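Translate sequence into structure tokens.
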Amino acid sequence: MPYLCWAFLYTSTGVNSYEKTILAQILQVLDLYAADMRKQFEALHEKFDSLQRQVQALNEKTDEMDKRIEEMDGRFERQIAQLERTVNERFERLEAKLGHIRVEPVETQETVDFHSVKIAQHDRKIRHLLHAR
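Result follows.
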């Protein structure tokens, strides 16, 4: 009803009744328009508040998801570290076994060489004994 103050000014300045009626109708339309605008602003304000609540809820969900992702990341890092330790231990055991396997053929070759020399010596002795008879 703020436009009624304008109507009061016009009524007191000597405006005729027809003009007063038109002015009153214009002011009434303006009041209706202003009331409608206020309702629209209130509706927009309510929608804005609703959107703010939704954004806040989304922010809370996002924060919760970030926390859960960080926890999962920590678990994965711990599992990967444990897996690396396990794999390293197994490789070390495998290297130790392979080290023994490498030593065994060398030792076997040395044994074969020793026996080959002995067999050759015995063959010479046998040939020498056979020729000496």
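Note: The longest helix spans residues 17-132.
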